Amino acid sequence: MKKYQIIIWLAALGVGALLGCLDLSWLNSTMNFIATVFTRLFRLLAVPTIVLAVITTLASLGSSRTMKRMFGTAVSYTLMTTIAASLVGLGLYLLIAPGNVPRADMAAQAATAASEMPDVKNFSYADHFLSVIPDNMVRPLLEGNVLALLLICFATGIAISRMPESEPKRIVMLGLNGVQEILFTLIRWLIAVLPIGIVAFAAQLTADMSSGTMIDSLGRYVVVILAGNCLQFIVVLPLFLLARGINPIKALKAMSPAVLMALFTKSSAATLPVTIDNAETRLNINPKVARFVLPICTTVNMNGCAAFILVTSLFVMQNNGMTFSWPMMALWVAISVLSAVGNAGVPMGCYFLTLSLMAGMGMDISLMGVILPIYTIIDMVETAENVWSDSCVCAITDRSMAQYTDK
Q1: How far apart are the C-alpha atoms of 371 and 202, rounded to whole Å?
Q2: Tens-digit pLDDT profile for residues 105-117
Q3: What is d(CA 230, CA 227) in angstroms, rounded to the nearest whole number?
Q4: CB 202 within 8 A of CB 369
Q5: What residues contact residue 165 under an 8 Å CB cut-off, 6+ apart?
Q6: Phi first, then psi: what are they for 285, rounded to 5°?
Q7: For residue 176, what are the CA distances in angstroms to 44, 48, 104?
Q8: Per residue in 244-263, pLDDT tens?
Q9: Which residues, other chains included, contact 45 with Cβ-Cβ below 8 Å and sequence gap of 6+?
Q10: Is 122 exposed, middle or buried (0-12, 13-18, 19+ CB in 10 A)?
Q11: Cα(331)–Cα(339) distance, integer angstroms
């Protein structure tokens, strides 16, 4: 992301806040109209973004028969570290408890949302589980049933990965990748005009908010995100290394050039050559392991993304009048992990995927417009954490393969 784009986004946020403070009815109506247009555009792209991201990612991972043990170890620790990151985010969210951003129309929105939801008194968890199991391939797409879509996408991606290498599989992958490129082009166009949407979202929120409470609520949200990333970076991941007899200080020292590059480039894919070089020459990892595991981890190992998706989704849904039971929070931990795994290749990474999830569920996504400029800083920390997590999984896999060979 270029510096001038960050400046434009911050400027748009400031302009929107100033316009909202004017409290002019015609101006508020105009900003609400523009915000609604952007919300509809995000919802338009929400379903195909989720479907294609998850299917193409999982479909590209499954044909390495000669390295099943290496693949299994890498994926197992990827899932464990990603689940841990999501749980850390959930714990901090419950502990710090970001409050609702007050809006004058929040009560009306909550009433509308409640009228569209099933009667919880007569709606058991068994009914909820059955509602996730699709009985029609098309209905989840038309209804925007995100959970059913994730289930279909997960199964479809795995099924494609298990197909023998053949012309039909190649044609299917070419078609999916082609459609995904079209989608990415549309997303880039939307991002290009996004400053207009940021102005509208910021003006819309500022007109309805109490500034002091807004700062407090958003501040707590940012603390949850950044503290969760830092805790995962300096405590959780080192514990995984220590459990396998690896010195985390030496490992971090060896991988520090790649971690620092990730911090400033905000791209684990762009950092990948440096990550591989550091792993082989500084951490003394077997090149066969490094060159196989790290590209996979760069694709699917998204610790920071899982935490961001979970915390941001809870924050947005909470501000839409929803409350959360323990089973629902557990469900969203699973959704955040699966969504993070399917995040590869999505422009703006987990921010846009989170926005797509929320838009696909019919949530008011105005808060996402305000979070966007803040996400620039969050993205730096998340990417550094992701590369450090990739390095940890690679080191653990190398240790596991060495012990397996010794036997």
Answers
A1: 10
A2: 444 443 443 343 3
A3: 5
A4: yes
A5: 63
A6: -85, 140
A7: 18, 11, 44
A8: 999 999 999 999 888 887 87
A9: 183, 186, 187, 190, 356
A10: exposed
A11: 12
